[in-house]
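Researcher: Please predict.
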Amino acid sequence: MGAHALDRDLAALAASARAALVRRIDASGAWTADPGWREAFEAVPRHLFVPYYYVGVVGGYERRWGESPDPRTREKWIRGAYADAPLATRLRDGELLSSSSQPSLMAMMLAELRVRDGDRVLEIGAGTGYNAALLAHRLGDDQVTTVDLEPEITEAARSHLAAAGYHPVVVTGDGARGVPERAPFDRIIATCTLASVPTAWLAQCRPGARILSPLATGLIALTVRDAGHAEGRFLHTPAYFVPLRGTGRPDTEPAHLDGIPRPARESELFRFLLALSRGSLEPREAYALWEREGQPSRERYGITVAGEREWAWLDSPEGPYTWPLR
């Protein structure tokens, strides 16, 4: 049969499941900032970008794929492809290398990217190609560039995109270096977690460009002033992504928390502060600050890039609470 050539019943199921996914994303409010993304999610078939994926089972992972000889497995594959959930798409020695992100989170990030007609967008982390397809549907193939370090990933993404009828520029390379030959960009969106914002990205942006990236279990939205300066605050939502390969693994695991009250240990916001201030604050110092400042929400934190310096801050880039990121 082939994952790209569904029989009539599966094709009908895919269409119905895609419509249900769009309704779920709509109800979540994910694209409230830019409802124009609804049409892209209605049009782009996610199942073409996940011809197989892995689901956790006792003792490891189970592979679901569109070419299974078992019709019940093929039906599970279609239903899973349109679940509002992340899908593991590439594993190596039990480690997750690539995934298709949760669609509602993708929708929220795309809406927060605040694209305009004519914008040139760089995506860091090609993944399955699904996000690049959504961008290409909205902006046009030539306006979208996606880059990934792994040739296997870019080759697969290019194949998935072509099967869906999209042809953005897919580059194999180090995402931390950007794609200078395709610059300047109006928007950069990363689908992998960073430890700090690469300076190369700023140099490839037009003044006023927007950068949206996962960092320290959150999403930072930066406005670029010029090639050496950018600043912005975190969005309200938590975000967990595969780390950007080639830059060292961001350390987002919680520190040793002996002596920290259980409510704080279990608080996602406190763990965000720990990840953001790691190397600068001991857990008890972070807890004292967190309590003193009223358990601050993510939107109170931000990042400033100024030349070779980059730091995170609470409430103000000038302090008193700042932490170097590099």
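Model: The mean pLDDT is 91.
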